Amino acid sequence: MDLLGLTIKDIEESLKKGVFSCQELVKESFSTIKKHDKKINAFLTLNEEQALKQANHYDNLIKKDKNIFDEKPLLGIPVALKDLFTTKDIRTTAGSKIIGDYNPPFDATVVKKLIDAGAIIIGKTNEDAWGHGSSGENTDYEVTRNPYDLNRVPGGSSSGSGAAVAYGGVLVGTGTDTGSSVRLPAGFCNLVGLKPTYGRVSRYGIIAMASSFDSIGHMTRTVYDNAKVLEVTAGVDPFDSTTVPIKVDQYTKKLGQSIKGMKIGLPKEYFVKGLDDKVSNSIKNSLKILEKLGATVKEVSLPHTDYAMAAYYILVPSEVSSNLSRYDGIRYGGSREMFGAEAKRRIMLGSYTLSSGYYDAYYLKAAKVRTLIKRDFENAFKEVDVLIVPTSPTLPFKIGEKVDDPLQMYLSDIFLCPVNLAGIPGLNVQSGFVDGFPVGMQIIGPQFSEELLYKVAYLFEQETQYYKIRPKFKNG
Amino acid sequence: MDKKYQPIIGMETHVELKTKSGMFCGCKNDPDAKKPNIHTCPVCLGLPGALPVANKKAIEWTIKLGLALGCKINKLSKFDRKHYFYPDLPKGYQISQYDMPFCYQGKVETSFGPVRITRVHLEEDTGKLIHQNINGHNVSLIDFNRSGVPLVEVVTEPDIFSSVQAKEYAKKLRQIIRYLDISDCDMEKGGMRLEANISLLNVKSQMTNNKSNSKFKLPNYKVELKNINSFRFLERGIEYEIERQREILESGKTPIQETRGYNAEKNITFTQRTKEEAADYRYFPDPDLPPINISEKWLNEIKSTLPEPFDGLFKRWQEKYNLKPELVELLFETAEESKKLEELFKKCIKEKLSVEKFVNAMVHKKIKTIEEFKKMTNIDEVSDDDLKVIIEKILKVNPKAVADYKAGKINTINFLVGMVMREAKKKIEFQRLQDLIKSFL
């Protein structure tokens, strides 16, 4: 057995037929992790004892009732949770040593939903501390490495989840996407990564980075698996007033339907200098495949794109500075001096932009820009059904390459942040491989259009099947 | 005090609402529970990842109070984060309202004139610090039972001009809040906390001063007197402050802008925080709580729960039952209680008893029912017809008294009433008997 050769659908069939048991599956998960993780550093905490116990329990359930899968659609599926996801009695660090020994007394809503659906929590994954970063290098623990090349970053901030799914430790890795943090690691690790519509998935129990941006997503190897997980995690939550009571679609049901006549928009502001030609060519190639599948491609404009990063880096640090004030040195043990350089930078930036006398010039102005960005997308979606842009302007970069230049690091997210400003969904699928590295492509849609994004991504994936390419552990 | 200085006072009053659950979580609202930290959850402890969900009832009660104070209601309102560091504030910020409070521009009448209400807004209470000596160590303990209790703040314009008026305003506000039955306003337990902003206006140097239309220019400083937990302390604290500030002004200086506390034992105020240390609260809209639309429909629903206005009720009772507000106000707190009281008044009228006397007896003799009142006054059951027979008889045997009365000596009627009662060998209501005798004369 090999997790990289399995999908959620395969596992359900195998468990039903008794090809393997839940326990065997979970044991395989842990043995893969033990084999690779010393070098990759995807996990901060493993939940082995509890996971095996749960697997045993599920094996008994399956014996009794084969229809248990109707009730528990993710039964037995090994899942890794980013360490911003609060887990009852399992250490939750946010990638920071300030709360390095915090054992929460409750489960996040999404964690509860995954557990109720039968998913097995394998462990908690490494990340840029508090979600601040694009490479995973801002962790207070060991830096996570890209399974395709251990000298390269896996993308962040959900670096551990990305790497863990990529090397076959788990089937699903959860993440939070405030500016890029699910889509970028998905792009760098050959995965399908969803940033859902803001308010589609509950934030309750997810340690906040920037509350009006944080979108709770996940990474899988295939589109079907990704859609299947969203069916479980999406929905209104009485504990999160920013969730929206809009019906959750059966995302997997429409996979395979034709995209003939679908209009794809190519924002001209995204195909400019700074974008690696190799990446650009890969995307253009993918667009040809989509045209072959019946879609039409046209250029559109998102005129305020240039202001997006500036607005993002005022609004996000403002909220960050507020959200991090609860780690005041009185609770959780660690003092505020233990914040890393990036967190300190954002606390200072945010405290400044919220200060009286500066609020109007920075926060309020940025909030207005945010509205303009949102409107840009709304206007574009009057012309086209979805937009396609590169996920990253470059290939996965080297560890250490950008750590001393925060601005360069911020620019890794230039094609991703505007989507968070607008609160709309974005899905990373694999556009292809260049020089042995995965290249991600982002499909963007209007609010609550996840079903549509999956539909496009699925046909493309069936045509290209990049997910079958396995990591080479170069330089490992 | 001489007329050289005019005190200018504005007030800020915090009141804990007595909703069943917390402002942003489902915890029981019981800030004074005997055991510490028993009514807590991830939300009111500010644990990582926990999110607030606004208590609809608390919002409705805030709007209800605003309406009772004659406020305008913002159609669109929101919650904001107010940042400051303190051990009893677990999130590092308090969820409050900054520039879009639920209610604004209201009024409270006092005998010295109206006090304009600037705003009424809603926020969450903080935890409570308890400083104790345990096993020889001085420690500070935190009780989070109070954390997240709905807290309403009522802010006035600087329309108060004396310590007495400040006290009257605060009492009136408490009366209105209790009447709405949305808070017990227990001052000793911190259920109602008073703050006064005090400064002195130099009247002589400002001839434009005109109290009645408030067109004077405010002094260039103010002193905030904080955390006062009784009306008496409010009055005394303000008086002390007026005197202290007057002395400073007389010496040619300007008092420092600062926050001061009141020490009841010594009857003095003392420095707590000066302007230099004042926090920048870095307010911004709380992204966890969507803005709140107060629709016409919702507002009307809230309006329909409003009782008869407090001032109107007293006016009506004065006209209808000849009741003095200062007396009858001792008999009820909530609107519900006022309704029950009026039921009793109606019963009095039906039984031809004096409501005024009944109220008197309720206040002074602590009786509660009409039966008790009757027993106390010992009024016997006797019909008008029976009485008429006796009256005719008494009038016949006392022709002089009758003549005197008719000649204008109206007090003679009291003698006749006494005679009738003696003859009847019964205790009969004086007023009733007097009226009956008059009908014969």
Tag the structure with descriptive keywords.
heterodimer, A: 476 residues, alpha/beta, Amidase signature (AS) enzymes, eleven-stranded mixed beta sheet, 15 helices, 13% strand, B: 441 residues, alpha+beta, 3 domains, three-stranded antiparallel beta sheet, nucleotide-binding (chain A), ATP binding (chain A), ATP-binding (chain A), transferase activity (chain A), transferase (chain A)
CATH class descriptor name of chain A: Alpha Beta
Estimate what percentage of residues of chain A fall within beta strands: 5-15%
Spatial separation of the terminal alpha carbons of chain A:
23 Å
Largest sheet of chain B: 9 strands, mixed
Order of helices and strands of chain A: HHEHHEHEHEHEEHEHEHHHEHHEEH
So what's the overall shape of chain A?
Answer: globular
Structural class by secondary-structure content of chain B: alpha+beta
Task: List unreliable stretches of 5+ residues of chain B.
Answer: 208-213
Tally the beta strands of chain B: 16
Shape of chain B: elongated
| Helix content percent band of chain B | 25-40%
Domains of chain B (count): 3
In terms of DSSP E residues, the strand content of chain B is 15-25%
At CATH level 2, the architecture of chain A is Alpha-Beta Complex
CATH homologous superfamily identity of chain A:
Amidase signature (AS) domain
